[in-house]
């Protein structure tokens, strides 16, 4: 679901609604999804559906956030990409341990913390949207879809 929404859905939504509104919507829906999983942590069906839906929201966000970072960073593209990847992978490395520690005290807690922090990210993004208002002021490269498909197939 993540790859499909990242390659096919995100560009369409971005063209129709804009980058920042879609990023905020996808993050908000992801936070609600985490909240749903927090409420029904004992229900395996809810968790399965929640994880699949999370892939949908995160796929859209991966595409839009990556593009926003590359467009708005005041440094060379390679430096922006390295910094962005560092943040993503450090978070990905720490998250299982943090979630495990939170889950030791309460199985619902990792989902609640994730939901609250995701909503905080929406707030930060919303309050800084003037700084990023220019991200939709360019035409996407004509090879973007072909390139995204090639990268996805390569994974």
From TrEMBL:
Organism superkingdom: Bacteria
Predominant localisation class: membrane
GO molecular function, one term: transmembrane transporter activity
Swiss-Prot/TrEMBL keywords: Membrane, Transmembrane, Transmembrane helix
Protein's organism: Rhodococcus erythropolis
InterPro entries named in the record: MFS (IPR011701), MFS_dom (IPR020846), MFS_trans_sf (IPR036259), YfmO-like (IPR053200)
Annotated coiled-coil segments of the chain: none
Domain Major facilitator superfamily (MFS) profile: 1-130
Subcellular location(s) per record: Cell membrane
Residues annotated as transmembrane: 20-39, 45-66, 78-99, 111-128
Topology relative to the membrane: Multi-pass membrane protein
SUPFAM superfamilies referenced in this protein's UniProt entry, alphabetically: MFS general substrate transporter (SSF103473)
Protein name (Swiss-Prot/TrEMBL): Major facilitator superfamily (MFS) profile domain-containing protein
Position of the signal peptide: none
GO cellular component: plasma membrane
PANTHER family, per database record: MULTIDRUG EFFLUX PROTEIN YFMO
PROSITE patterns attached to this UniProt entry: MFS
Pfam families documented for this protein: MFS_1
């Amino acid at each position: 679901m993540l790859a499909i929404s990242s390659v096919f859905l995100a560009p369409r939504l971005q063209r129709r609604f804009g980058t920042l509104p879609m990023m905020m919507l996808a993050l908000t829906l992801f936070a609600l999804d985490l909240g749903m999983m927090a409420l029904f942590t004992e229900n395996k069906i809810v968790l399965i559906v929640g994880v699949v839906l999370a892939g949908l929201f995160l796929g859209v966000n991966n595409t839009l956030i990556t593009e926003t970072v590359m467009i708005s960073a005041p440094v060379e593209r390679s430096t922006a990409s390295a910094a962005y990847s560092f943040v993503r992978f450090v978070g990905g490395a720490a998250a299982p341990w943090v979630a495990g520690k939170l889950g030791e005290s309460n199985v619902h807690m990792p989902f609640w913390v994730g939901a609250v922090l995701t909503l905080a990210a929406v707030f930060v993004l919303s309050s800084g949207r003037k700084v990023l208002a220019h991200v939709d002021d360019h035409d996407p490269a004509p090879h973007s879809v072909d390139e995204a498909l090639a990268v996805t197939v390569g994974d």
